[in-house]
Design goal:
The protein is α/β, with parallel strands linked by helices and about 375 residues long. The chain has a single domain (about 5-375), classed as TIM Barrel (Alpha-Beta Barrel), CATH 3.20.20. The chain has 15 helices and eleven strands. It has helices at about 5-10, 20-30, 35-45, 90-100, 120-135, 145-155, 160-170, 185-190, 195-210, 225-245, 260-270, 280-295, 305-310, 310-315, 345-355; strands at about 50-55, 60, 105-110, 140, 170-175, 210-220, 250-255, 300, 325, 360-365, 370. Helix 1 packs parallel to helix 3 (about 35-45), helix 3 (about 35-45) runs parallel beside helix 12 (about 280-295) and helix 6 (about 145-155) crosses helix 7. The N and C termini lie far apart (about 50 Å). Mean pLDDT is about 90; it is low at about 270-275 and about 380. The protein binds iron/sulfur cluster.
Length: about 375
């Protein structure tokens, strides 16, 4: 029996041991895709029993594109003073949430750049005002790097910022900006973004405050498979720590390959000496499969249709993913790199799930099931 066969057989047993970094690397590199997907799919069945695949009606809101962090792969940001820089007003943001409410949405995912012209009170007033106007909408906002930027401007600690934001109505801290939690990779792609330890610390603080959190992973920067598994290890370790402290920890893990404009390919390729950036469908499906097997303490693995397309996202549902993401309604960060699909209809998500043999269910930000959709709702469109 080959090494990968032995490892996958062990992972398919009842009550398997946590996958080690070394074994994860081996199956990532050596196991045939079909075997990897089968093992991940079996793990999904034991970790998230039943045939339901979830999705959410939500809206992305990118409240400002002004940012001082200058990540090499980012086509979304504009430096302070740039003609195309913007910050939305409270009314503009609220109007977007009105549209979401009309469609039965349950959450906004509001993220932007690190904008030095916005002070602490701007954020707390925004959160208070949105909570007042839209009490049924979960405000999942910002990312660790934004929290760090606000802490720096305000002179508060990141914990204090999160604590005050929570008091003002923040529901969750999405896990954006993790990219690769390996400092040698981070220093090449986002030298000003700070260490992986900062991201982990801020997410740990958010979890200790009861904020809903998710973990992300962008790959394909020319890093090694070892680096990719190292990222997963750091997420899993934080989850272990949070769960042992009685916190809820991450609701989910979502990964996608970096989407790059041609000029950004050049920038990163030159810096890291890499030529083969991003990742194709097969590599993505290997990554999803390994993440399902590795993340034994995170229940939900999400497929990424905005970067891979709905067809590949459907295949990811048979590679361990149990959630197909959300409608989004608009997307400005990844799409700035050239993806064309920036929203999905309820019908599209539902049909994508049904045609893979799963039962679609609408969920909220905390993965509570709100509604199991029936066949005759297939034509429902937004
Ligand atoms: S990825 Fe985020 S932090 Fe980096 S430059 Fe873009 S907006 Fe700024």
């Amino acid at each position: 029996m080959t090494e990968w066969q032995t490892i996958l057989e062990m992972q398919l047993a009842d009550d398997p041991p946590p996958l080690t970094v070394e074994d994860a690397e081996k199956i990532y590199l050596q196991a045939p895709l079909s075997e990897l997907m089968y093992a991940a799919s079996e793990r999904r069945k034991s970790q998230v029993p039943g045939n339901i695949v979830t999705f959410m009606i939500d809206r992305n809101i990118n409240y400002t594109n002004i940012c001082t962090i200058n990540c090499n792969f980012c086509s979304f940001y504009r430096s302070p003073g740039h003609d195309e820089g913007y910050t939305q007003t409270f009314d503009q943001i609220s109007a977007r949430i009105d549209e979401l409410e009309e469609l039965g949405g349950s959450r906004i995912l509001m993220q932007g750049g690190v904008n030095p012209s916005l002070n602490f009170e701007w954020y707390t007033e925004l959160l208070s005002e949105l909570s007042r106007r839209h009490p049924s909408i979960a405000l999942d906002c910002f990312s660790p790097i934004e929290i760090e930027g606000i802490a720096e401007i305000s002179g508060l600690s990141t914990f204090e910022v999160l604590s005050r934001f929570r008091e003002s109505g923040m529901h969750g801290l999405p896990g954006g900006g993790a990219e690769m939690l390996v400092d040698s990779v981070r220093s090449g792609i986002s030298p000003k973004k700070g260490s992986s330890e900062n991201w982990i610390r801020v997410m740990g603080e958010a979890q200790s405050l009861g904020l809903t959190t998710s973990a992300t992973n962008v790959f394909g920067f020319g890093e090694s498979i070892k680096d990719r598994v190292e990222h997963m290890k750091k997420i899993r370790s934080l989850q272990e720590n949070s769960l042992s402290n009685g916190y809820l920890g991450f609701t989910s893990f979502i990964s996608w390959p970096v989407m790059l404009e041609n000029n950004a390919f050049g920038k990163i390729g030159t810096r890291r000496g890499a030529t083969n950036l991003g990742a194709g469908s097969v590599e993505y499906l290997r990554h999803v499969s390994v993440s399902r097997l590795f993340m034994s303490n995170i229940d939900h693995i999400q497929a990424s249709w905005p970067t891979m397309g709905l067809n590949v996202a459907q295949i990811a549902l048979t590679a361990g993913a149990d959630d197909i993401g959300s409608t989004m309604m608009e997307e400005n960060v990844v799409s700035a790199s050239g993806t064309t699909k920036t929203m999905a209809t309820i019908s599209e998500l539902k049909e994508s799930i049904l045609s893979c043999g799963f039962t679609p269910a609408r969920r909220d930000s905390d993965y509570n099931i709100l509604e199991i959709l029936k066949e005759d709702q297939a034509q429902l469109k937004i």
